[in-house]
Amino acid sequence: MNAEAPLLALRVSRAETLARRLEAEILGGLEPGSRIGTKEDLRRRYGVAVATVTETLRLLEQRGLVEARPGRGGGIFVARPATRVALTHLQLGFRTGSASYEDCLEVREALEPLVCRDAALYHRADDIRALREIVKRMRGHVDDPAGYFKLNWALHRRIAALCRNQPLRNIYLTLLDYLEASLDRAEYGAFEGEASVALHEELVAAIDTGPGKRLDRALARHRPLVRP
Predict the structure, then answer these.
(1) Which of 11, 40, 83, 98, by CA, is between 20 and 30 Å from 92?
(2) Does 209 have pLDDT greater than 90?
């Protein structure tokens, strides 16, 4: 057996752990274009090896979450929406104009229960606090559909960050990016902000409770209330 194999597995495990930590921070509210730091900054901040940082950034770049910028003032930045949407097209095989909002929404709705049940299994107390804080901010935008749905996407990205199934999480997140990019063409005539925020408050409470009937009921009632 190759003596380096266990070391490689350990390195990848540490890289994935750090990637998930940074992913949660990014999805928890870091603005696109925000500077995260340099590789050396990350190495010092988290006390890991250079190889671990390199592998972590590779994972995050594959997920469309960060981008590296060379030169003076460069470093690692939170990826802009255009970068993530371009990755969506690459990963899901979209051609320009080939995927409708409704098609993507249908797939997202099918994946939602799987993502939320994983979140219900693996969340921690600080995760629930972060989710409740986003919902609280959503309540302040019940009469502002555009602002409300920007926070809505942030909430679901934060929920997805708790999902341990990496392929599921990545596909779900790329669908969210594609849907959010369509919001400039959205119609909000039937938007009911108070009802929507109440549904999301219950969804977060159900995730905190864990898998079971309460979560099933919350998922059954949860439906996107916007169409392009």
Answers:
(1) 11
(2) yes
Rounded Cα distance between 59 and 158, Å, is 18
- Point out which residues pair with 66 in neighbouring strands: 78
Residue 162 in contact with residue 172, Cβ under 8 Å? Answer: no
Give mean pLDDT, residues 188-213.
90
Q: How far apart are the first and last CA of the chain?
A: 56
Residue at 219: amino acid letter: L
Per-residue model confidence (pLDDT) at position 9: 42
Whether the pLDDT of residue 228 is over 60: the answer is no
> Which of 3, 29, 43 is closest to 150 using CA atoms?
29
pTM of the full structure = 0.67
Query: 4-79 architecture in CATH?
Result: Orthogonal Bundle (1.10)
Structure tokens at 12: 């990848």
Fold of 96-221: Four Helix Bundle (Hemerythrin (Met), subunit A) (1.20.120)
Q: Please name which of 85, 101, 143, 110 lies closest in space to residue 228, comparing C-alpha atoms.
A: 101
Instruction: Select the more confidently predicted residue: 186 or 151.
Output: 151
**Which alpha helices (H) appear in the chain, and where do they start and end?**
4-27, 39-46, 50-62, 81-92, 101-122, 125-139, 145-160, 166-181, 193-209, 213-221
Do residues 155 and 135 lie in contact, with contact meaning Cβ atoms separated by under 8 Å?
A: yes
Give residue limits of the domains in the chain: 4-79, 96-221
Higher per-residue confidence, 39 vs 26:
39
Residue type, 164: R
Tokens of 177: 């990016």
Average pLDDT over residues 210-220: 95
